[in-house]
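Re: the multi-chain job from yesterday

Posting the exact lines I submitted so nobody has to dig through the queue logs.
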Amino acid sequence: MARRFGITLALLVTACSAPSRPASVPSSPQDPALAIRWGLVIHGGAGVITRAKLTPEREAAIREMLAQALREGHAILARGGSSLDAVTRTIVLLEDSPLFNAGTGAVFTHDGTNELDAAIMVGTTRAAGSVAGVRTVKNPILLARALMERSPHVMLVGAGADAFAVVAGVERVEPAYFFTPERWQQLQDKLAAEQAAGAVLATPDDKLGTVGAVALDHARGLAAGTSTGGTTNKRYGRVGDSPVIGAGTYADTSCAVSATGHGEHFIRHAVAHEICARRAYLRLPLARAAHEVVMEDLVKVDGEGGVIALDRDGHVAMPFNSPGMYRGYIGEDGVPHVMIFVE
Amino acid sequence: MARRFGITLALLVTACSAPSRPASVPSSPQDPALAIRWGLVIHGGAGVITRAKLTPEREAAIREMLAQALREGHAILARGGSSLDAVTRTIVLLEDSPLFNAGTGAVFTHDGTNELDAAIMVGTTRAAGSVAGVRTVKNPILLARALMERSPHVMLVGAGADAFAVVAGVERVEPAYFFTPERWQQLQDKLAAEQAAGAVLATPDDKLGTVGAVALDHARGLAAGTSTGGTTNKRYGRVGDSPVIGAGTYADTSCAVSATGHGEHFIRHAVAHEICARRAYLRLPLARAAHEVVMEDLVKVDGEGGVIALDRDGHVAMPFNSPGMYRGYIGEDGVPHVMIFVE
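And the result, structure tokens for all chains:
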């Protein structure tokens, strides 16, 4: 690593830190029999989430928010709505909650701004929209969807993406909208620690809280979406895997994935597309394909994080190699299942 | 399509136009026996390249430039250099040539600026670097490489990427450096046509000239790289497939791909990773895997363009579904093979 730290000490943000491994990484694939007829799987980020760090109040609030998102997504699907609508609505709710690193509650960049990334994809048509480095859009997932539906383009970055929001009529907000005291304090702590150490330090917490959803509707149509504020103290317009179609977000006719974690490794492994490819071409059960990529390939390179995955047969997979991942699923019975730790 | 043209007529650029299909799309896979022990495959863009549109002088200049790039890449590999170095050098040469839509010679955005994208990836390590929307960097491929080698990050976008160039010591230039009269005229023609039509028109030529290279070195290490100026008259920070790892650029231990064409479709199909996945998991010959994706999947959605691909066994594939693709390869014998049309 010495060489990589060469000239750009000032650049280093969280991605540099070796993620702390959980005490025991689950070593077997998840229950491959977990399946729904139709429904929704969501995540609210993966990382060093431990019972010691999570107050009972915060844990309860997060669980309730995830359950609410699942119920609202379910309601859309129950009345015959599309997987795209369910994914969109669910992610909007999580963006609007300050509990997650997306929309309000997004982490701060080194410069004290918020730069948001999001992507959405429809499996049946492969229609996709992706935005990166957005600063003024209340719900980046809605901008990604507007891009997908009302333009011929798939990806917009930087100031241009904000400019497109004006044309597309997507709601914009003042920078103060994204402010939360907790995220601001995280940046101040980070900056103080950097100054004390004379270098940029990184902790795994910096990137906690990306949100995502995958859904399967009555017509067996799949969709996937992801939204994030990226990493605390990030610089230079850094973008992780969330808005990279095939890495953090992907859906086709048979498989949909949203990822969360150490974005650089997720990009290098084209995680979302890799899982779908192994399922389709190696004919692995979805849980096995997702397990291999997350618990084997990514663990080998300290690529901390996890994914949620859903296939057209309703199989659900939610593997993660970090101590925790905020996650949940809901099937046709309408009962939300919310989990945080290995449970 | 009517709905998609709704509010954002002003947004439409080339991606909207149905690409004109070539009179006869090659229907069989390329010679699967084309293989080298080590060497290099390059492209200089795909699109409506026809003998009628290409003057003999320009054709000769392009052929000579491609041959020169192949020879220089070969020289690096011949003396034991890495595939990464060969890819880097080749792409720098093509960026420095005004004949291609990368580096100087890049097309102009709607605002009369140049916004450049590039990505590079090393197969053995999956190390990768990607930059999008760069405005001041002479050789975007060198910025992508600096990012890969000297930071923990994979992707930087917008103004931040230019700021990183300062930190990384990558050569920057004034905007005038990218200016070529031909590209400027293309923008003026486009703007005039728009004004006359009252809407944004698009022609397949707008996106011609992306450059890319894949190489296999003596150690059987693969690398891939791609660099582009995007599409003439593009707006809103539009990014195509070139800098999207897994779409326009990808390399792993057994397969490397660089793509060129209608970027939106290439992103949706995760083209580069898809080809490598079919080769690895379906055990298809590389030529067959590349043929299926380019000549079948992409043709179905009017996704005009092509790829260059190389595997660790030295198999070469260069399928394209457009009338032409500037391309070539060179093996251990040091003889450059340059092609433009279906030949």
